[in-house]
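P.,

For your records, the input lines for the assembly:
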Amino acid sequence: MTTQSNTPSPNHAGFDEQSFLSAIDPMAKWAVEYMDSLNERDVTAPIKAGSIREQIPQAPPEQGMIHQPTAADGMKQSWESLTQEVQTIIEPGLMHWQSPRFFGYFPCGSSLPGVMGEFVCAVLNVNGMLWSSSPAATELEMRMMDWCAQLFRLPDQFRFDCEGSIGGGCIQGTASEAVLSAIVAARKLKTRQGIDRSKVTLYTSDQAHSSIVKAAMVAGLADSPEDDSRVRLIGVDENLAMDLDALKDAIEQDIRDGLTPCFVSVTLGTTSTGARDPLREVGEMLKAIPQANRPWLHVDAAWAGAASVCPEHRAILDGVELADSLCINPHKWLLTNFDCDLFWVRDRRALVDSMSITPAYLRDEQSESGEVIDYRDWHVPLGRRMRAMKLWFVIRYFGIEGLCSHIRRHVELTEHFEAFVVDEPGLAMACDRVLGLVCFYVDTDEDVTRELIDRVNARRRVMISHTIVPVKRHDHDPIDEPRKRTIARVAVGSASVTKDDVEVLINEVRDELQEMLK
Ligand code: PLP
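Structure tokens returned:
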């Protein structure tokens, strides 16, 4: 005898009109309320480790919302209760990155068109691993990469749509993944020339983001962050930019030692202070090295690159035509929801050659024809989401002018904060302001900047972060004992930040500073 079950079909994805609208309604309301509430909320909350997990049942539910009465009202209530759990359990456990008073790290700005693009991407939920597995996913992405190349005024070598170009770009999740792909491609070029892969070396400045050394570790060029047998962290000048002579010396020494320089990563806008490595000079110097020993030149402009949408900030990318690859993260400072890293290469064949592996089940006529781009060959993952959708929505919505004014507004607000630091007794700029980043310290005999940061953050109304950098070299500093200093970083980049929010930040810093210096 068979029993009739009331269990809904497991194939029911909930996209019928009634279910969908009853779900979307409370979620849309929640989204508006959350974004509106950010102005009033603390940016961070005191959280005990494990306290969020404790509020979520240890085991998954036997019966889900889907088993509750299917009348529209019943389902709506279920969605409302889930939304409520987001409000009561999740929200209190967040650092609110979209708060207008979030000034920590680098920004991670979102926007309504970005969210809508994510929404469409989630609904379509296609896998663009091959051109043929969703032609529109690949072709939209190729077009967006070419649009962005124009947005940042990149040279033709990085575009698909320029006569004679063998370059192009793809969207990666993060700058960390982009640099890993670039390293693997660079190494492939060397091994193709018959060079022993255990002899290739990598160079970046000691101020570069940790993702460069991490990628070197993943690629097998280093066993640990400290392993310097094939990874050279080049020293910096007084502006914390890569020291060109030191790079040249390191490359020449390695060639003399029978090693093969394989990869140089320069940073335009370092994480600590926004320093800009001398890209043009590095590129010219590398060009003079004979091909067999000439390393691949990668440019990490993850944060600062976004500013080059504005003609007045384009100089940040000066020399980019000398690069083999470049990455910029719109998920940091260009209103595009996390995650979205733009990665361009001058010669896509090297990249594809380093990653391509085609089992029978991925073989098809279009790929074999060589006429299409299969993005699975551009990075580690096979499956890929349609991240280009949100970029399309953002660029369509804001246009070039809207994106420029977004950057300009932030730079202006940062100048306002800079003026405060310059005028405030007891504070000093650690280096020149770079775009939306101000680095400063408490100018006293004792190193109390970390205390100031902690005190400001403990009030929770704003969030700023810290870093440790080599101090500007003065004549009296012993050369062999570089000093380090903790500095405070204020990065202006929240989509909704206003001058009032910067004033709140100024007051918080001033109050705590005065309290400390009493
Ligand atoms: N490069 C720079 C200059 C960065 O500032 C960061 C992160 O802040 C990264 C790379 C790593 O970014 P992602 O999180 O996209 O890997």
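Two observations worth noting. The chain has a mean pLDDT of 92. The CA atoms of residues 238 and 472 lie 5 Å apart.

Regards
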